[in-house]
Amino acid sequence: MHIEIICTGDEVLTGKIVNTNFAYMSQKLEDAGLTVKWETTVGDDREDLLSAFLRAGERADAVIVNGGLGPTVDDLSQEVAAQAAGVELVLHEEWLERMRSFFTRRGRTMSENNVKQAMLPEGAEFVDNPVGTACGFAITIGKARFYFTPGVPRELRRMLENEILPRLLAVSGTQTVIRLKRFHSYGLGESHVDSLLKGVEALAPDGSVKLGFRAHYPQLETKLTVRGADEADIKAKLAPVEAEIHRRIGNYIMAEDDDTLEGVVLDHLSRAQGSLAVVETFTGGQIAARVAPLPGAEAVFRRGIVARHFDEIAAALGMTGAPAFDTEPPTAEFAEQVARAARVQTGATHALAVMVAIEDGEDRIDLGGTVCIAVATADDVASRRSRLAGGRDWVRLGAAEMGLDSLRRYLQDLPIREPNDFEKVDKL
Amino acid sequence: MHIEIICTGDEVLTGKIVNTNFAYMSQKLEDAGLTVKWETTVGDDREDLLSAFLRAGERADAVIVNGGLGPTVDDLSQEVAAQAAGVELVLHEEWLERMRSFFTRRGRTMSENNVKQAMLPEGAEFVDNPVGTACGFAITIGKARFYFTPGVPRELRRMLENEILPRLLAVSGTQTVIRLKRFHSYGLGESHVDSLLKGVEALAPDGSVKLGFRAHYPQLETKLTVRGADEADIKAKLAPVEAEIHRRIGNYIMAEDDDTLEGVVLDHLSRAQGSLAVVETFTGGQIAARVAPLPGAEAVFRRGIVARHFDEIAAALGMTGAPAFDTEPPTAEFAEQVARAARVQTGATHALAVMVAIEDGEDRIDLGGTVCIAVATADDVASRRSRLAGGRDWVRLGAAEMGLDSLRRYLQDLPIREPNDFEKVDKL
User: Fold this and answer.
1) Is B287 an 8 Å CB contact of chain A?
2) Which of A5, A15, A279, B346 would be B277's cystine partner, CB 3.0–4.6 Å?
3) From CA A119, how far away is CA B100, in angstroms rounded?
C-alpha cells in the first residue's frame, strides 16, 4: 500500500516549530508494519494545498493530512479537501452539538468561529476526536483515501492510534495483530548490538518478527515488530526471541517498552523501601533532575549534592583528611569515599557518586573526561573508572547515563563494570 | 523567488530521526528574508528521488536537497542529480585529494567507498564542506538551481550559512544586508508581548524592520528581521526599535541573540568575582544543571543542594528550630531563611533558593504548585511567592525558569517580583 503524509501550516513550513508530528506518525505506521513513501509540507495556502492533495491523490492509496482543521481563517483543510473532491461543505450537526457541550462543560461560550470546524465535505466519513474541537474526517480524492487529522499533537496521537491506524490496517488487508516490543540499553553501539543479535529473528516462524533500532545517544532502543493472529499468537512468537535477546545483551538492557532507566531505579528502591543520595560534579545536577521530580520519588530521593570541585564535595560531606582532590583526575577510591560519606551524612540506604574531571581547553570533538562512579550501601561499595570523549556535552550525557545505569546494575545484582563501547581505554 | 527543500533518507522518512534539519534551514532562510514554499521528504529510493527532483525543477527557482551525499550504497543524491540533469558523474580530483588528507590528518586510511563522495555531476558547481567528507554542489535541473547539502547537521549548518545563503541572496536580487536581532524573555505570553510592542516596526523607515515571535515555554523569543544597505544602515534602523522594545518590556528580557539566561547569570557573577549556591526541591537539580556545566562555571558555581522535602533541606543546611516544613505550602520567608543558610554554609556570595510544593494527585492540565523563591547575599535578601499550574512538567519548567530569572533580575538591580502571565493568582 502506497501511503503519503501531507503536513500543513505556515508554522511548520517556516520552521517556527519542528515537525515532530510527522516523525511520530511515520514511526507509528512503521511499527504497525505500514510504510510511508512520500511526505509533503505546504503552508496555509489554498493553491499549494490543492496541488498537494491532487498530486498525492494521483500516486497514493492512502494519505494522512495533518493540520488546518482549526477555527481561524488560515485553517483551510476542509475547504480545500471539498474542492479537491469536487463536493460542497455541509454542516455536521452532531459535531456542532458536541462542540457546544465541550465548551459548556468548561464554563465557556463557543465562539461563532468554531462553527467552521463542523463543516465537512459532503459525503465525508466522520473520524472522532474525543479530546478537541477539530473534527477528523476521511474522503476520497483521486485514487486515494484521505484522512484529515488535527495539528495538536495530543489530539493527533489519539486519533491516529484509535481511528486511523485500524482503518489503514483494514484497508491494507493485514488481518493480523501487530505488537511493538522495545528494549532500552546503554553501553553498546547500534552496529554492535546488530551483530550480537544476528539471527534472533529466525527464532520466530515465517518472518513474523522484525528487528530494528533507534539510537539516541547515550541510549539505544532495540525494537521487535511482531505480527500474529491474536495476542496469544504474538506472545508465543515473541517469547523465544525475547529470551534470546536477554541472553545475549541482557545486562545492558536498562528498561523495556515505556519504562525508563530512572523509573526502573526508582521502582527498585521504592519496592525495597530504600532511599537515595546523589553526589555529582560536571553532570551538574542532571542525574538528580532525572529521578527527583518523578511521582513517587518524594519517598525515595533523599538528597542531591552538586559541586564543580572535588574539595567542595569533600567539604559538603565533611570528609576530613582528604587529599588535594583537584590536582589529579579522580580515582575510583575517591568516588567510593564520597559515596560512603554521602550515605552516612544523609542516612540514605544507597548513595551514588559520579565524579568527573573534564579536560581543559576549547570544546572539541575529541575532548574527554575521566569518570569515576561509586555506589555505596551500609556495608558495601562498588565502583568503576572510565574515560569518555566526544566533547563537553557527550561527556556530560555519557557520565550521567553511566552513573544512573551503574546504580541500576547494582540494584539488579549485575556487575557495574562491563565492557562499554563508548568508553575510551587508550588514555587511562 | 520560489524556493523548495527536498529532504532525503529512510531514517527521516520513517521517523527514526526527527527532521530538525528542515526546520533549521527554513528558519534560517526566513530570517534572511527568503521563504520556503514547499517541502518534500523521500526515502533512499532512486525512483522517488528522481521524481522529486524533476517535479521541484518544474515549479521552483531554487531547491535545497539535504542528505544522500555519504559513502554508502544507499546514498544516491549525486547519481540521481546527474540523471535528472542528463549528465554523467565525473571525478572531482581536488575533493578526492582533500578527503585523503582529511583522513591522513586523523591518522586513518581512506576507504575506497569514500571515492564515491568525490563523484559529481558533470558541470556541477563545487560547494565547499570544510568540516566533513560530503562534498556539496550546485546544478540546474529543469528551471531550478539545485543545491545539494550533507545530512550531518554540523556540516549542513556551515554550508548553508557560508555557501548556500549568499548564493541564494545573490540570485534573489536582494541587494540588501539582512540581520536578525533576537530578545529572549520570560514572564509575558506571546500575544501579550505582541500587543505591548504594537507599532514598534513603524519606528524604522520603509518597513525595513519586521517583528516576529517564537514561543518555547517558558521562554519567548521576539525577533526583528532588519534589512539595510550595509551594517551601518542596519544599525541606524535597528537602534530606535531596539530602544523602544527595551523601554516597553526591558525588565522581562533575559538575554539577547545567542546569549542564554544561564549564560547571563554566570557572566554577571564572573565579572563580580561572585559565587553561587543553589537550593532546589521539585525542580530536582535542573537549575543547577543549567549553570554548573558551563565553561567558566567552575570558578562560580559553588554548591547545589537538592531534596524533595523541606525538612531535608533544613537538615542539609543545619537550620535548627525550623517549623514543620512539610505540613504547609512554603512561605517566602522560609525561602529567605533557606537562601541565607545556604549562603552562610557554602560561603558563596549569592544563594538562590527555589522551594516548590507540588499538588497531590494524578498529573493533569490544571495541576499546580506553590513556588517560593529567594536570593540572598551577605547583607540582603529578596523573595517572591507564586502559584504556577499546567501539570507537573510545566510547574517544574516554570519554577526553574522563574528561579533563575529572579536571580538574573536581582543581579541586574531589577525588581524580582513583577506581574507574570504564567502565574495563577486566584488560589494564593
Assistant:
1) yes
2) B346
3) 62
